[in-house]
Design brief:
203 residues; four-stranded antiparallel β-sheet
C-alpha cells in the first residue's frame, strides 16, 4: 500500500517498474497510476514515481502528476493502465475522464520519466499538452482498458466505445509519436487512426 498525501483516498489500479540506466549508478523506479478521490463524487488520475531501492522513506513519491488538475476536477476521472517506453523512459497512462458535452471519454496521457506533461504531445487547437481524448460516434461512455507501444513510436490505446446504434464496441486508437492520430489508418467512421469492431449488439 502507498500513501500519496492527497486526501488518503487513493486506489492503485496499475503499476510498472523501469530501470533508468542513464543514472550513475542505475536506479529502478516503480510508476503507479491511481484514482485519487477529491470528494465522494470527484476523482482525478494520479501518477506517482517511487524509488524501488530507496530505503529511507519508500512511501514518499519522488514525482507525481495529476489530471485533471485537482482544483479544477469535476466528475470521476480514473486510470486503467500504465506502461513505460523501455528506451526513453516516457510514461503512458490511459483511462477515462468526463469531457464537456460528453459522457466519459477515453483519455491518453504521455509524460516524461520525471512525470511532466510531454512536449511531444503539444497543446493548441483545444488540446492539452501531454493529453489526448477520444469520443466515439455514439457520443456516449468510452473507456480505455490497456495501452501498448510498438517500439517505432506508435501508441495503441485499447478500449470500449459506444457507436451509433451499438452498445460497447471494441475500439483501438493509434497515435503517432507527436500525439496525432495515425493517418496510416483511414477514416472508417470515427476519424483517422481508429478501428472499431461491433460486438453485434444494438440499442
Amino acid at each position: 500500500e502507498f500513501q500519496s498525501g492527497v486526501n488518503g483516498g487513493d486506489e492503485g489500479v496499475d503499476a510498472v517498474i523501469w530501470r533508468d540506466e542513464s543514472l550513475d549508478p542505475p536506479k529502478s523506479f516503480v510508476y503507479v497510476a491511481a484514482a485519487v478521490a477529491i470528494s465522494s463524487s470527484r476523482s482525478v488520475i494520479g501518477v506517482y514515481k517511487y524509488w524501488v531501492d530507496e530505503t529511507s522513506n519508500p512511501q514518499t513519491a519522488v514525482a507525481s502528476f495529476f489530471y485533471p488538475p485537482i482544483n479544477t476536477a469535476t466528475g470521476v476521472s480514473k486510470p486503467t493502465a500504465i506502461t513505460v517506453d523501455p528506451d526513453t523512459g516516457d510514461v503512458y497512462v490511459v483511462g477515462e475522464t468526463p469531457v464537456s458535452g460528453n459522457a466519459q471519454d477515453i483519455v491518453a496521457i504521455k509524460l516524461t520519466k520525471g512525470l511532466a506533461a510531454h512536449i511531444e504531445w503539444a497543446s493548441g487547437g483545444g488540446l492539452v499538452q501531454g493529453v489526448r481524448f477520444f469520443n466515439g460516434t455514439g457520443d456516449d461512455n468510452d473507456r480505455a482498458t490497456d495501452v501498448m507501444l510498438d517500439g517505432a513510436g506508435m501508441v495503441y490505446v485499447l478500449g470500449t466505445s459506444r457507436g451509433n446504434g451499438t452498445l460497447d464496441d471494441l475500439v483501438i486508437v493509434k497515435y503517432e509519436e507527436d500525439g496525432d492520430r495515425s493517418s496510416t489508418w483511414d477514416d472508417e467512421s470515427d476519424g483517422v487512426g481508429v478501428r472499431r469492431w461491433n460486438n453485434g449488439s444494438e440499442n
